[in-house]
Amino acid sequence: MPGSPRTAPAPADFPPQWRPTDPAQVQLVACIQKGQPTDETVGTCDYHQVRGLLETAPADPRVLHVPVKATRYHVFVYEARTGRQVDSSSPPTIEVRTYTCPSEVTPKEVDPSAGPVIDPLTADEPSPAQYRQVLAALVG
Known about the structure:
By secondary structure, the chain is mainly beta. Helix content is 9%, strand content 40%.
């Protein structure tokens, strides 16, 4: 479950030489694989139950503490003309540890004795700076 809305970086987040206006000039295409949570807990989001949903909680002893896991994204870069994967032996990764608690989450189930059950949340999407850092190593 995301910690923030999922949005792709805007073209303006990248240097002009990385975004040619003529499609014939495109040399590489980068794709990112949906992030997978790691075992590292980077924080918690606190919720209380309201109408079947879990909403952000004020200080309350009945609060449910939901862990937030760091998230790893794999970046795959392909030659635009051939479709050949660049550096296929070791695709670069982006580790994200920043997060934003959603205002509400829906439990996957409610255990009668333990209460709401929810999977850990995941960190945010990579920032434009993180994308640029990883891609700069491949495109120069």
